[in-house]
């Protein structure tokens, strides 16, 4: 299995999405948003298709401006109170371990408290750089999260590889000028637009070296 040319490139940093890329939080997310939708009179089918979008942006789609602050506080409360069933996705722990001494970061649409709660619940050893939706003016699909992650690592976004599972997250990465590797964990392969696509992180390995980081197909 090749990686459509990614294996021939050298990167200064790897930037990971979190939910759906490193951890499977699907059940917890669904439970929280399903309850929120019932409480706010939103039909369940209207909640679909928002993978990778910050909660504040989703709330803004359904509630008038004077109710949004309360709506955001409520979904944050629901998500923070439910981290049951989180699981580390295949290859995620190994990927982070391989990059422990190399520049890498997580850029997530979660808020900082929720990101820390999910990381703790999963048991992952997270990178030191963690960019969350409450740290940027515009969340995904805007490029801001990945631009800030690259800035904090002191690297050029054009020399970063982003690992994502969601179309809007990939859109954010491309807008930031990053190379993209998609994992087919939450979205059908044909809906993912990336430089290379794999089933999950167990299908690749990261190799830091003196000149940078390479990504290879797993043996």
Automatic annotation (TrEMBL):
Question: InterPro entries given for it?
Answer: HAD-like_sf, HAD-like_SPP, HAD-SF_hydro_IA, HAD_sf, PGP-like_dom2
Any one Gene Ontology molecular-function term assigned to this protein's record: hydrolase activity
Give the species this sequence originates from.
Microlunatus spumicola
The protein's UniProt keywords, in alphabetical order, are: Hydrolase
From which residue to which does the signal peptide run? none
State what protein this is by name. HAD family hydrolase
* Coiled-coil positions: none
> Per its UniProt record, what SUPFAM superfamilies does this chain match?
HAD-like (SSF56784)
